[in-house]
Structures are given as C-alpha cells and as structure tokens.
Write a structure and sequence with these properties.
Protein name: Beta-phosphoglucomutase
Structural class: alpha/beta
CATH architecture of the largest domain: 3-Layer(aba) Sandwich
Number of domains: 2
Helix content: 40-55%
Family: Belongs to the HAD-like hydrolase superfamily. CbbY/CbbZ/Gph/YieH family.
InterPro entries: B-phosphoglucomutase_hydrolase (IPR010976), Beta-PGM-like (IPR051600), HAD-like_sf (IPR036412), HAD-SF_hydro_IA (IPR006439), HAD_sf (IPR023214), PGP-like_dom2 (IPR023198)
Largest sheet: 6 strands, parallel
Shape: globular
Strand order of the largest sheet: 3-2-1-4-5-6
GO molecular function: beta-phosphoglucomutase activity; hydrolase activity; metal ion binding
Organism: Nocardia ignorata
CATH class of the largest domain: Alpha Beta
Order of helices and strands: HEHHHHHEHEHHEHEHE
Number of helices: 11
C-alpha cells in the first residue's frame, strides 16, 4: 500500500524504457551478445548475461562498448558517430549493435509488460505527468512500435542527451532534465528503473526510486539506492 500511495501522490513519474515499460531489454541483450560473439577474439572470455547486467545495462551505448572492451583488456579508437558498423572503432561497434537491435524490433515488434501498461493507464487516469528517460537512441521507435508514444509528455533519450550535452546514467542529468521539462521537483517525482546505473542516477538526482527486478537482483538494486524493489509494476496497484 505504501508504494501505491507514493505513486498516486507523485508530482510526476519518470520511467526507464527497456525492461521497465517494454520487454526490449531482452532484445538489447540479444543484440549485445551477437555483437560481441562475432567481435571478441576466441582467446578472451565470451560475452555473458552477467556482462550485460554489470557492464552494459542502462548505460549509453558507447559507454557499454568501452566497458566490455576494457573488461577484456582490449582497446579500440573511438572513431566518430558516423562510423560504419563494420569499422573497428568504439562507435563502429556501437552502430553495429544498434543495427542488430533495430532489425529485431522491425521484424518482431515490441512487447509491453502487462503490469507496466496497467500502471501507465492508472497514472494517466489520475492525470499524473509521465516521462521516459532512456539511454537508448531508439526510444521513440520503441514507444511508437508499442503504441505508447502519446502517453508521455517528455522523452529524454540518448539522442536528446547527445544534442543537449547531458551525461548518461549513472549521472542524474537526464532525469533532472526530464523533471525540469515537466516543471516538477526531483523530491516530488518517482523514478522507476530496472538497471543499477539507472537506480543510481535517480538516487543521485534526489528522486524517490522504485527498482524493478527483471534479472539484476533485488540486492543489487537496493545497494544502488532503490527505496523499494518490486517484481512487476502491477505490484504498485495492489
């Protein structure tokens, strides 16, 4: 009941996208796994689900590439954002991963978590402003594919972050920008996140943070600063 009342009384609610609203975290994981299975040399450890959660999940794409390479003692030149996916650069690998992701979304569509949709509908009925804050550059594509784009007054994604010079999660800059756009104070706003980096960003920004355990584990989310950890967003309606 405490969690439900907190959401109902929030000035606004800011959602992460992948793994919170839509089941696209699994698509991202598949795309990252395909990328590094193809790229990493056979003498280094293969990319695993633990790598996804510990090194990639919730971070800007380029930071994820750098983290995985560094974990294997590998370095590549950064290159530029316009690098072709075949380029042996950090941006090239990031663009290759993005290509894998968008291929899957266009081919298979996007699944929305039922509990998440129920919460969004409930908040809309209460006229509580909502925003999406995602490191992904594909947030609008995913939301549009999922028929959710018109539900959110503000979208701060990787494209907006680059345009406006906002640091990515775990820095709170993206969440703070969304709160400013909605005209609300962080202390009156709830962040809902499934990634450690996102939970940390919300905590550092002064928000109340609800962690959603989609595989990261309750202990890790609490350690990162989640005030509450739930298994499904529908839990906030009970």
């Amino acid at each position: 009941m405490t969690e439900r009342v907190a959401v109902q009384r929030a000035a606004a609610v800011l959602f992460d996208l992948d793994g919170v609203l839509t089941d696209t975290a699994a698509v991202h994981r598949r795309a990252w796994t395909t990328l590094f299975t193809e790229f990493l040399p056979p003498q280094v450890a293969p990319f695993t689900d633990d790598d996804y959660y510990n090194l990639v999940d919730g971070k800007p794409r380029i930071d994820g590439v750098r983290a995985v390479l560094s974990s294997r003692g590998l370095r590549l030149p950064d290159g530029t954002v316009d690098d072709l996916p075949e380029a042996a650069t950090v941006h090239g690998l990031g663009n290759r991963k993005n290509g894998r992701f968008t291929e899957i979304v266009h081919r298979d569509g996007v699944d929305v978590f039922d509990g998440s949709l129920r919460l969004v509908n409930a908040l809309a009925a209460l006229r509580i402003p909502m925003g999406v804050v995602s490191s992904s550059r594909n947030a609008e594509l995913v939301l549009d594919t999922a028929d959710l784009l018109d539900r959110f007054a503000v979208i701060v994604d990787g494209t907006v972050a680059e345009r406006d010079g906002l640091a990515g999660k775990p820095d709170p800059a993206m969440f703070l920008a969304a709160a400013r756009a909605l005209g609300v104070e962080p202390t009156e706003t709830i962040v809902i996140e499934d990634a450690v980096s996102g939970v940390e960003a919300g905590r550092r920004g002064g928000f109340r943070v609800i962690g959603v355990d989609r595989g990261t584990g309750p202990a890790a989310l609490r350690a990162a600063g989640a005030d509450v950890v739930i298994g499904d967003l529908a839990d906030l309606l009970t």
